[in-house]
Amino acid sequence: MTGEIIKVGMADLNVIKHPGTLTTLGLGSCVGITLYDPVTKISGLAHIMLPSSKTIRNNSNTAKFADTGIAQLLEDVLKIGANRHRLVSKIAGGAQMFSFSNKNDIMKIGERNVAATKEILEGLRIPLIAEDTGGNFGRTIELYSDTGILMIKTIGHGTKQI
Amino acid sequence: MGISIEELDSQQIDVLKEIGNIGAGNAATALAKMIDRKIDMNVPKVEILEFKEVAELLGGPEVPVCGIYFRVDGDISGSIMFLLTLRSSTTLTNMIMPSNDGLEIPDEIGQSALQEIGNILSGSYISSLSALTGLDIKISVPSLAIDMSGAILSVPIIQFGQVGDHVLLIETEFNEGNNEVKGFFFLIPDEDSFEILLKSLGVLQ
């Protein structure tokens, strides 16, 4: 693996040209969204927290929300030379870390984040080619610009590549 | 209209600190009774931090921690999270359950003991809050998870995230002899409840 490893924090996003790796650590109910152009190997990663910027008063941080975060990520990968029609996406996260017997909207935030993410990708006609979402455990993800492979690491639930 | 953490003035922060102090004091007393040993407690630190600073405080987003989570209902609604470093969680289980001695991660019985400890600590914290404010506040049955700190913290942070980019946290250290237990309380009132809370404490018009 060559190139730099760039960390993306919570409610944050970043894009890189090949070579390099994008990573975000400890995804819980948040969703990690990657965009990848297999020809230029331009890669982008966003770590969103909430489904929609429209229902929130304080919405100045675009990377915090699925709707504005994906739009910003798309704009940023295109800006550094990715081709709109070649872009593919992979997503991971959206877990429910704590379970309660009563159905509570706040606890289902992971599920809602994943649903919103898929809807937005579909609206933008970006194919979602792989996902590792749901469950009740945290994930660290790494996107390798060399191959577009997304590595997923967990505590007690193994590692996998998608 | 709700009030967000960023908008608090120094007097309001002082009052919240004092509540943290009293609540943690009662929690320490409850813990001492439960394990029948003397517990020392430092003055809790109350801090308002940005999201990204919180995980760093625990050693980074990938460090395993133990989180115990409750819903709060009654005159105010919201959540409470009691967070322990993994080391503190094993120290705690070892204090009350010798069968857990030497385990790296608490076993099933150890985890259920931790839930109970979390229950007692949060219960005493909430009852002091209730006594100080005159508000009727109840807490749910706890739910426990041991995982990466970033993943565990995403739960309270997302809830705070609906109103701002900062969290209010109370850091408490308990000591029993040489055993040190470091815990963090997050009190997360839902948007309108924060205002009710501050009003009932007399620090908001």
Structure summary, number of beta strands of chain A: 10
% residues in beta strands of chain A: 25-35%
End-to-end distance of chain A: 17 Å
CATH class of chain A: Alpha Beta
Order of helices and strands of chain A: EEEEEHEHEEEE
Q: Gyration radius of chain B, to the nearest Å?
A: 16 Å
Could you characterize what this model shows?
The complex is a heterodimer of chains A (162) and B (205). Chain A is built from 2 helices and 10 strands, in the order βββββαβαββββ. Chain A is of the alpha+beta class. Chain A has one domain (4-161): 60s Ribosomal Protein L30, Chain: A (2-Layer Sandwich). The model of chain A has no long low-confidence stretch (mean pLDDT 91). With 205 residues, chain B is of the alpha+beta class. Chain B has a single domain (5-200), classed as 3-Layer(aba) Sandwich (Chemotaxis protein chec), CATH 3.40.1550. Helices cover 45% and strands 28% of the residues of chain B. The longest helix of chain B is centred in the first third of the chain and has 26 residues, at 10-35. The model of chain B has no long low-confidence stretch (mean pLDDT 80). The chains are: A alpha+beta (162), B alpha+beta (205). Chains A and B meet through β3 of A and α2, β3, β6 and α5 of B.
